Amino acid sequence: MTFRTTTALLTLAAIGLGNAATAEIRLGASVSATGPAAFLGDPEAKTLEMLVEQLNEEGGIDGEQVELVLYDDGGDPNKARTFATRLIEDDEVTAIIGGSTTGTTMSIASLAEDEGIPFISLAGAIEIVDPVKEYVFKTPHTDRMACEKIFADMTDRGITTIGMISGTDGFGASMQAQCKDVAGEYDIEVAADETYGPGDADMTPQLTRIRNTDGIQAILNPGFGQGPAIVTRNYSQLGIETPLYQSHGVASDAFIELAGPDAAEGVRLPGTALLIADLLDEGDPQKEVVTAYNTAYQERYGQSPSTFGGYAHDAFQLMTNAIREAGSAEPDAIRDALEATEGLVGTTGTYSMSAEDHLGLDLSAFRMLEVADGTWRSIE
């Protein structure tokens, strides 16, 4: 895979296109393919590479080939902004996909707004699209929606008092705040509230304090990356028996592998249809989409795709569909067509956007999942 980086020569990195001169529609992307958020950005980059090649082999968009200029920001918001600037000013892209994390997304989003370039984020925080920004859209469910899905499941189980242990990164802090804000709507009390830093390697003290808090019936861990896997291992090592919930920020097979199947057994989280593709009913509107993506990704890379690659898949489909619908690659025309998206079925859900909603998903697109025998199963 070819990326532009800060040390690379500033020559066009056309992905899926043999000759840059033949490209007629130029899309930009900045993802975290390396660094601490590589588990997000690597499958996103691979997905975008694959989809561009597929699209061009099929004739492009109304006969026009697509070129993707792709940068690896390593999860650094400053690099993400630098690359977004380069994409707009030097590469002259018509739209941008990316922002694997909330931090990198917000760096790109501010520039996209200033320059009038449509941007679809791959990150989870609600602040990305609330309040609505004219040129900024996103594909993952928001962290607030994840809180609501989790609390609905807790309510069904009769859970009313919980402990939280949250990452202090942008996503973890945002979801922590959203869960605390929405907890009262589900009559759930947050009786213990702990945090951990991105570099922490042992969360035993925080989990011990939660365990020793009277009345705790479940533990919720807003976070992404390695932190939730460590929390899960420590939770198991301490022999805690109250249910453990994780966020959609770790909805992938990699989480189970990192935490260990035994430690992760019984963990619940809100995820997407992509993780249970084989279990979907034949009549499920997402089955065809997730099956096709799963098959193509496995054939090309020899591994299963992740939820995060699915976010990139949906962003690419949304963007290319908007270009078709607009009949133009002009940024404002694409923006308007994105906002008018209706009923586009992706791996994450079915998107219907509006001037008031630049995500276009509701809670029905979330699936409550549980780890059972080392894999995911639906509990709905």
TrEMBL record:
Pfam families: Peripla_BP_6 (PF13458). The keyword Transport applies. Belongs to the leucine-binding protein family. InterPro entries: BCAA_transport (IPR051010), Leu-bd (IPR028081), Leu_Ile_Val-bd (IPR000709), Peripla_BP_I (IPR028082). It comes from Palleronia marisminoris. One of its GO terms (biological process) is amino acid transport. The lineage of its organism: Bacteria, Pseudomonadati, Pseudomonadota, Alphaproteobacteria, Rhodobacterales. This is Leucine-, isoleucine-, valine-, threonine-, and alanine-binding protein. The keyword DNA damage does not apply. It comes from the Bacteria. Transmembrane segments: none annotated. PANTHER family: BLR7848 PROTEIN, LEUCINE-SPECIFIC-BINDING PROTEIN. Keywords: Amino-acid transport, Signal, Transport.
